[in-house]
Every structure is written in C-alpha cells, then in structure tokens.
C-alpha cells in the first residue's frame, strides 16, 4: 500500500483477554516503531525493529507486551491478559533507513479499549 | 523541565488568521519533526528539519539551531487545519523521538 496500515482500527477487549495488533509498514522500510499514546498524552516509545531484529524493547511496559516482525515486514504487537491501563492508541511508524535522521511515516493507529 | 516544550498548549483562531506554533528544545538534535494529529486519527508527518526553512502549501516550518527553537506557521488558516500539532526531536544518532506535549489548534469558521 501507499502508507503504513494498521489493523484493527478499533478494538474493545475484556480485561484479561489477549489482543494482537497488526502493522503493515511501507514496503521496503527498514525501521519500524511502536508507540503507545494514552488519551491526552504524547506518544510513548514501546519498541524498535530494524528489519526482523528487535533492537530496542525498553519501552514495553511489562512482560505482558510482546512484539515481533519475523520476516522484516509486517509486525504484530501482542498484549496478554489486558488491563484497563492498557487502553490507549497504539501507533506504528516506519522509515526507510536505519539509525539515521530520516522521516518516519505513521499509521492511523489502533484504539484499544479494555473494559 | 521537559526537553521539548511547545507553546501555546491551546490556540483558537478565526478562519483566515496567520497561525504560529512554537517549539523549544534543550538537547542537541539531528532533526526536528512537525507532525499533525486529528482527533481519533493517526499522526501525519508534516516536516522534518535540520536547518533553515521548509514550505509546503500553506505550511511553513523554520528552525534556528543556535537558539534551539522552531516555529510552525499556517497561512490563511482553515477549519480543516484544526488538529493537534506536535513537535518531536531526534537527538544525535538516537532513533527515538523526544515528543512535545502538542498544541491543540481550533480554527473557527
């Protein structure tokens, strides 16, 4: 596609349920980022991939959060045993190169509501 | 004190007005990004700057590296410009972005 695509756009999960959020980056983009944005807050870094390698997962808030990008393209952010504090918009961004100052392209985000 | 500060936090203006949003930062940077986020929507990258000035349509972004300051200007503002505008910087070779808190802009018809 022309841009970064995220699915689903909206997800309502019952507390304790596992969820999987998908990100399709722009084809050929090396870098992929996941961010968490709570209501009224700026995005918070979760994790960074360069191709299939997860180079930084320091932002993942707990071991219930897991991200993968097995073939260096599509990425999945999985949240196990969701809690109410996990409710947020999860943003994915990709950029064409690695650790350089290149522009990042963002998806529309997935709004997760845990009830 | 936050490393990236934006002002104003909120801005309401009439259609047609010239808009300025400011961003000051305290770290050394390799790039500064201006991004736009509509309610319930994703983030759209408007500009990436490392020096000087860039223009795209009615949007102009400037940066003064010595003063560690950037401005985003909107000429002939329109209600569809209503959004949150976010300044984010990339410090050195660090791939992570340091985000400002955003400026909520409302343009009234």
Describe the structure in your own words:
The complex is a heterodimer of chains A (115) and B (109). The model of chain A has no long low-confidence stretch (mean pLDDT 91). In chain A, the strands form two sheets. In chain A, strands 2, 4, 5, 6, 9, 10 and 11 form a seven-stranded mixed sheet that branches. Chain A is built from no helices and eleven strands. In chain A, strand 5 and strand 6 form a beta hairpin. With 115 residues, chain A is mostly beta strands. Chain B has 109 residues and is mainly β. Chain B contains no helices and eleven strands. The interface between A and B is medium-sized, with 23 and 22 residues.
In short:
The complex is a heterodimer of chains A (115) and B (109). Chain A is mainly beta. Helix content of chain A is 0%, strand content 48%.
Net shape of chain A:
globular
Structural class of chain B: mainly beta
Compute the CA-based radius of gyration of chain B.
13 Å
Strand content of chain A: over 45%
Calculate the terminal CA-CA distance of chain B, rounded to whole Å: 36 Å
Number of helices of chain B: 0
The pair of chains with the biggest contact is:
A-B, 23 and 22 residues
Fraction of residues in H or I helices of chain B: under 10%
Largest sheet of chain B: 6 strands, mixed
Q: How many distinct helices of chain A?
A: 0
Q: What letter string, H or E per element, gives the SSE order of chain B?
A: EEEEEEEEEEE
Strand content of chain B: over 45%
Shape estimate of chain B: globular
Quaternary structure state of the chains depicted = heterodimer
Give the topology string of chain A: H per helix, E per strand. Answer: EEEEEEEEEEE
Termini separation of chain A comes to 33 Å
Largest pleated sheet of chain A: 7 strands, mixed
